[in-house]
């Protein structure tokens, strides 16, 4: 997992800046699932639903047992109005990381 400090743009509520930082992070660490989760969050803040889902799916592809990625995908599906898929991803996240939900 990457050791990532808070992105500087976040403190300014500069969502486009945060997205650019997240994209640069993924470019630098394309095989790191955490980088893709950060990218998914950035897309979510900007309401880019398809990109948000794609970023979380890539994180899962890289690390299928990563509960936080499944939880993020669940949120992304909810943003897109895909309730059944959101519930399935949420259940997978709970299965993999029950301590995330206590």
Task: Give the helix/strand layout.
Blueprint: H1 15-28, H2 33-45, H3 49-62, H4 67-79, H5 83-96
Please characterize this protein's 3D structure:
The chain is mainly alpha-helical. The protein has one domain: Serine Threonine Protein Phosphatase 5, Tetratricopeptide repeat, CATH 1.25.40.10. Helices cover 67% and strands 0% of the residues. It contains five helices and no strands. Helix 1 packs antiparallel against helix 2. The longest helix is centred in the N-terminal third of the chain and has 14 residues. The radius of gyration is 13 Å and the shape is globular. 32% of the residues are buried.
SSE pattern, N- to C-terminal: HHHHH
Compute the CA-based radius of gyration: 13 Å
Within the CATH hierarchy, at the fold level, what is the topology? Serine Threonine Protein Phosphatase 5, Tetratricopeptide repeat
Q: Strand-residue fraction? A: under 5%
The CATH architecture classification is Alpha Horseshoe
Structure in a nutshell:
The protein has about 100 residues and is mainly alpha-helical. Helices cover about 65% and strands about 0% of the residues.
Name the features.
102 residues, mainly alpha, Serine Threonine Protein Phosphatase 5, Tetratricopeptide repeat, 5 helices, disordered N terminus
């Amino acid at each position: 997992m990457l050791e990532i400090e808070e992105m500087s743009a976040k403190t300014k509520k500069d969502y486009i800046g945060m997205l650019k930082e997240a994209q640069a992070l993924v470019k630098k660490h394309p095989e790191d699932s955490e980088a893709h989760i950060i990218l998914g969050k950035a897309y979510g803040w900007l309401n880019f639903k398809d990109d948000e889902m794609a970023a979380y799916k890539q994180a899962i592809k890289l690390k299928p047992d990563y509960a936080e990625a499944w939880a993020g995908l669940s949120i992304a599906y909810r943003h897109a109005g895909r309730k059944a898929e959101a519930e399935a991803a949420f259940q997978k996240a709970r299965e993999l990381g029950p301590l995330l939900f206590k």
